[in-house]
Amino acid sequence: MQSKKTEILIDPDVLSESHLSNDIHSRESHVNEIINCMRPITNGDKPVNCWLYGKSGAGKTASAIHALRKLTEEAGVRGVYVNCWEYPTFFSVLERTAMKLRMLGAEKLSTSFKLERLKRHISGERLVIVLDEIDKPPPKERHAILYNLSGLSKTGLICACNSQHAYFDLEDRIKSRLNPARIHFQEYTQNELFEILLQRARHALATDTCDEGLFHTIAALASGDARIAIHTLKNAAFLAEKDAQDVITNSHVMKAWNSANDLNKTHMVSKLTDHHRLLYELISKNNRILSGELWRQYIETCDSRKIRPIAVRTYSDYCNKLVEFGLVQAKRAAIQGKVREFTVAQ
């Protein structure tokens, strides 16, 4: 007689990255702040653009989409979400926006044509565009996206990325035109992650298949990153089912966390430019390396690969970006001068 298949995950979609629940735990104030910035648009006035920043898994995307949904449902505002990691050029952002708004006659392969068609299409209407991962497009494309879209009448922009650096690096004329409210997303606390996991588990997992103590364990391992916490719980449930167990164990959690942690690093690295990846590659190869030696190896590698190196100032910014992403750790070296020691984050 064939044994009955163990079922722990009764609704895996609830633990997917794209799932958006009706409640957004611990980010209600952020959602309200975004809505208040966009509120003038409900009266046909120009809203205050938003710049959401904070580490990955801090709830920026979910908060932006929640705010967009509320504005659509309660005020009849039209909304478009664009992931600039997937659409990293001004042309592709316009194309995605045209598709979401179901614009007719915007098929012509011309950026200027698509922009003029968009202006005519939304004439007199209220529109909010979420530009997620706005730091992903190259500077020239990012400038074009922000300068042109922030100039649309009765249109609000909600920009989201990991830090403020992408904003401060904008040309002054674009910063002046955009003039956003900057909203910081702190990492989730361990208790907040516990509550998020508990809430998701009620809908995703079969009853009594995961002890609450394991939620605390996952919350502690995730270090403030809700995406990693939720992915770990989902993987742990899959592993328990694979082992034909009736419950998730600590062993399943640890295996799942290692997998989620590796996936997160891969995800972060894939978001970087070629020069970011080269610096990360050199730091990984050396294990520990001083900033001056890293620069020397970077220049030599660029020369050997026939790559044009970035400027010294940009090099420093790129190193800071690796630290912000949690891929690299930096500390002041125990020698004279402003020398830093870089190591790969564990």
Description of the structure:
- The mean pLDDT is 90.
- The chain has 3 domains: 83 residues, Helicase, Ruva Protein, domain 3; 157 residues, P-loop containing nucleotide triphosphate hydrolases (Rossmann fold, 3-Layer(aba) Sandwich); 72 residues, Winged helix-like DNA-binding domain superfamily/Winged helix DNA-binding domain (Arc Repressor Mutant, subunit A, Orthogonal Bundle), CATH 1.10.10.
- It is α/β, with parallel strands linked by helices and 346 residues long.
- Helix 1 packs across helix 2, helix 9 packs across helix 10 and helix 10 packs across helix 11.
- The strands form 2 sheets. It has a 5-stranded parallel sheet, with helices on both faces.
- It has 14 helices and 8 strands.
- The longest helix has 21 residues.
- Known CATH architecture of the largest domain: 3-Layer(aba) Sandwich
Give me the count of strands. Answer: 8
Fourth-tier CATH superfamily name of the largest domain: P-loop containing nucleotide triphosphate hydrolases
Separation, N- and C-terminal Cα atoms: 47 Å
CATH topology tier name of the largest domain: Rossmann fold
Largest sheet: 5 strands, parallel
